[in-house]
Design brief:
Chain A: Keywords: Cytoplasm, tRNA processing. The complex is a heterodimer. By secondary structure, chain A is an alpha/beta fold. Chain A has 16 helices and 10 strands. Helices cover about 40% and strands about 5% of the residues of chain A. In chain B, a hairpin with a 6-residue loop joins strand 1 and strand 2 (about 25). Chain B is globular. Classes of the chains: A alpha/beta, B alpha/beta.
Chain lengths: ~475, ~350
């Protein structure tokens, strides 16, 4: 390059300058500040309007949230939930044009114990978050995940939706003003022994995939319990479009095809009285990031189980990197997957009966092995690989609920003979297997022991098993299936 | 340290099953594999006694194993079926002519009658010529659409009752993933069914007896039974969209081996909301083949090829169907859009 007798080319070409001074496509006056999709430059104020309008339209169009209703926002501190919080703040502010009219509360679950963070680290993160919550003025609660070990069995059961919806909500608006004062309510402290039990529980899941699914389930139970005890009927989650697309792909890979609509849809009413709502589901991660940067929305970075892991460490992590990579080559991937999720619904209608619901994820069971289905093929494969008693080659039809061998060590477990009082026995995997949906069964398969599961799950499992044994005894005398569960 | 087979407990285990992780000896593995296919056939009631069944044979491992297993099971369990082989010649030099030799060898080994249909005689185009015009990005669409019709026409010529293809569990799982990624809700609903509907003339129902067999197990079976097959990838396939789904699936399998069947389970259990627009089955007005539009896809593609407009048929051109049917010339602008070819 810098030689003595270098020949320079006669004419150097000018680099093509990008057209920086493009006008906003909406107001056509201001200079564009951000490019959301290819060909859509927006200026700052139009972008803010677009973002806010989309958020309000999502809530308003679906008419799920009534004026004066108590709504709990689950804020993890990450970008999507922080953006959701700031939008709710703006929407309820006095100066808003079309004010949002519900009563928000905030909840944050401190998962530091599960991740192995030190106590100081956890306290630092929590105090950062508290500072953000305090400026919002809403009542907030910070709950450590260890609380999940003490939940009652109602956390895994559905309950009928409360009857005080539309007519009384205007009255409730009067009472709501007291709650608006905000501030922390009495917080539980973290006990060392509980943290150890929690870590043992997560440690009993041998693969990262199972660990993450277990963590997600526990988090869900805790959130529902909080919402129920404090009287909130709606729970707002801050999952963005990108994250839901990844979740869809993960759910398909985990065998949750029957529950896709509930896992990724706008509203999820599997618990009956508490409805999960996802208002951020039309915002891509990019839009949220730009919004947070432009309008200085405070966020707190909290590590998760997947942080700094390899690409193939778990199914969730693999799906995420797959979708991100595909998005680069085919920019419409995330929105196409999102549109697919909109067209799905929950199969089989809503079944309130507890026996028809999974113990862990509370979705309806999809383990009825129909003729020529994947589930039946799987059962047959496992039967064929087990030790057969000498002389029989015939393959027996599998029992209607659950496989006969749940572990891969080649032993055929027989179906439970007489009714045994289970309070005296240590909980075993096969007791839980038939109470779970297909994908929760897979998670259970990856766990080394079920003894560390929280007490409420084990108690509920025993109760359901006893009830199904009772039902088997009196089956021939029952005329009709029960409609709803009688307490 | 020799491990004994977990099924019979006597012989030494020679392999580990990819599907369940059990260690099995050769004979128990063969038995398990064949038994699973038999159970699939019986539970889904795929065949009736006395039917003529055509096995779609390409010379690759899936169709070779399928032909072998069908022959074995037909004799062992007395299905009462008459079997024959159909093969499709797409005209890909260096790939298809070699695999066709394998099919001819299979015909002699299994003593089954064979019929070969070629794109050249049906459509007047070979895949080599098509790729020259279309480029390497969308050529798999042409091949797939043409092959489907070719199989049906061949089956009609042979007067068979059913066709069975060698699609395995990996293929079905890849299809589910691909349809999710592409947002094709109509196909997503249909792709996990084990056999297609059997109404309508001009349509031969087809089924997938190997639907729950893992690809790796098929290879293991063929390897231990020393079956003769042709194992090279199609030379035009590297850029297909399916490749992405395939790598994803392979990675999933390495994390959790049961993922493949889990994905099939997801596909079988998902349900579509009412009110979502679905295509309705009709017939093509030009060739009479089944189609959900006025013109079937292969007529549209052929028209595009014959007119030198390779992009006709890739993407949405429903509005142009009317024009093509009535033989009107396309406007300049439309022609320009349809001509651009990526290299």
């Amino acid at each position: 390059m810098c030689q003595v007798e270098e020949d320079y080319q006669p004419k150097l070409e000018r680099a093509q300058a990008h057209s920086v001074c493009r006008k906003c496509v909406k107001c056509k006056e201001e200079q564009a500040a951000v490019l959301i999709r290819a060909g859509d430059p927006y200026c700052r104020s139009c972008f803010r309007e677009y973002f806010t309008h989309k958020f309000r339209a999502m809530l308003g169009k679906t008419r799920l949230i009534f004026p004066g209703e108590k709504v709990l926002l689950a804020v993890s501190g990450g970008p999507s939930s922080s953006a959701m919080l700031s939008q709710v703040q703006q929407g309820l502010g006095q100066s808003a044009q079309k004010k949002l009219r519900f009563l928000p509360g905030l909840v944050h679950i401190d998962e530091g114990g599960a991740l192995g963070l030190s106590l100081e680290e956890r306290q630092r993160l929590v105090s950062e978050l508290k500072a953000i919550f305090q400026t919002s003025g809403f009542p907030f609660h910070v709950i450590p995940l260890e609380q999940v070990l003490d939940l009652p069995t109602s956390a895994v059961n559905t309950a009928p939706p409360s009857s005080d919806q539309a007519p009384e909500c205007y009255k409730a608006a009067g009472d709501g003003r007291e709650l608006q004062q905000g501030g922390a309510l009495a917080e539980p402290s973290v006990d060392e022994a509980q943290t150890r039990s929690l870590q043992q529980l997560l440690g009993s899941a041998t693969t990262l995939t199972a660990k993450e699914e277990l963590l997600r389930t526990l988090r869900q139970h805790l959130l529902v319990h909080e919402a129920r005890t404090r009287g909130y009927s709606k729970l707002l989650l801050g999952e963005s479009c990108t994250r839901l697309a990844v979740r869809l792909l993960t759910c398909v890979s985990l065998g949750r095809g029957a529950h896709l609509a509930q896992d990724t849809g706008f509203s999820d009413c599997r618990f009956g009285d508490v409805t999960f709502v996802r208002p951020m589901r039309e915002f891509s991660a990019k839009e949220i990031a730009v919004h947070n940067h432009m309008f200085r929305v405070p966020t707190v970075v909290i590590p998760s189980l997947e942080t700094k892991t390899l690409e193939k460490a778990s199914i969730q992590r693999l799906s995420e990197s797959f979708v991100s990579r595909l998005q680069q080559d085919f920019p419409s991937t995330v929105s196409t997957i999102y549109r697919t999720s909109e067209k799905l619904q929950t199969a089989g209608g809503g079944c309130c009966e507890e026996d028809g619901r999974c113990l862990l994820c509370v979705c309806s069971l999809d383990t009825a092995a129909g003729k020529a289905s994947a589930l039946q093929a799987r059962l047959i494969s496992e039967q064929l690989c087990c030790q057969k008693p000498a002389g029989t080659v015939k393959v027996e039809p599998p029992p209607p609920a659950g496989p006969c061998c749940s572990s891969a060590d080649g032993e055929c477990g027989s179906a439970a003979g007489g009714a045994v009082c289970c309070s005296s026995q240590a909980p075993e995997k096969k007791d839980l297997q038939k109470l779970l949906c297909y994908s929760c069964q897979l998670t259970l398969r990856d766990m080394s022991s079920v003894a560390h599961l929280p007490q409420y799950i084990l108690t509920e499992a025993q109760r359901r098993n006893r009830r199904s044994l009772m039902k088997d005894e009196i089956r021939e005398f029952l005329l009709e299936e029960e409609e709803g569960s009688s307490s | 340290m020799p491990v004994s087979c977990s099924s019979c407990g006597e012989k030494r285990a020679m392999l580990k099953r990819p599907k369940t992780g059990h260690s099995l000896c050769k004979d128990c593995f063969f038995m398990a594999f064949e038994e699973e296919v038999h159970q699939t056939i019986v539970n889904a009631s795929l065949f009736k006694s006395g039917e003529t069944v055509a096995i779609a044979a390409s010379g690759g491992k899936d169709s070779t194993v399928l032909a072998h297993v069908m022959k074995v099971l037909n004799e062992r369990y007395n299905y009462g079926l008459e079997l024959m082989l159909i093969s499709v010649d797409e005209g890909i030099t260096g790939y298809r002519d070699d695999s066709l030799e394998t099919v001819k060898r299979n015909q002699q080994q299994y003593e089954l009658p064979l019929k070969i249909v070629s794109y050249e005689e049906l459509y007047g185009w070979t895949m080599d010529a098509i790729v020259k015009q279309v480029g390497r990005k969308n050529n798999c669409t042409f091949c797939g659409v043409f092959r489907r019709q070719a199989l049906d026409r061949g089956a009609l010529m042979l007067k068979v009752d059913k066709i069975c293809t060698g699609h395995n569990a990996d293929d079905v799982a890849e299809t589910v993933l691909m349809n999710v990624l592409r947002g094709d809700i109509a196909r997503l609903r249909r792709c996990t069914t084990i056999s297609t509907a059997s109404e309508g003339e001009g349509v031969v129902p087809r089924c997938k007896p190997l639907k729950y067999a893992y690809e790796k197990e098929i290879v293991l079976y063929a390897y231990f039974k020393k079956l003769d097959y042709f194992s090279t990838e199609c030379i035009y396939s590297p850029n297909a969209y399916r490749g992405y789904a395939r790598t994803f699936l392979k990675d999933l399998e390495s994390i959790r081996p049961s993922s493949i069947v889990d994905i099939i389970h997801s596909g079988e259990n998902l349900s579509v909301r009412e009110g979502v627009k679905m295509p309705v089955q009709g017939t093509c007005s030009r060739c009479g083949y089944i189609s959900s539009q006025a013109l079937c896809k292969s007529c549209v593609l052929l028209e595009g090829l014959n007119r030198g407009l390779p992009k006709l048929g890739i993407g949405k051109h429903h509005r142009l169907h009317g024009k093509i049917l009535s033989q009107q010339p396309l406007t300049e602008k439309e022609e320009r859009k349809l001509k651009s070819v990526e290299s």
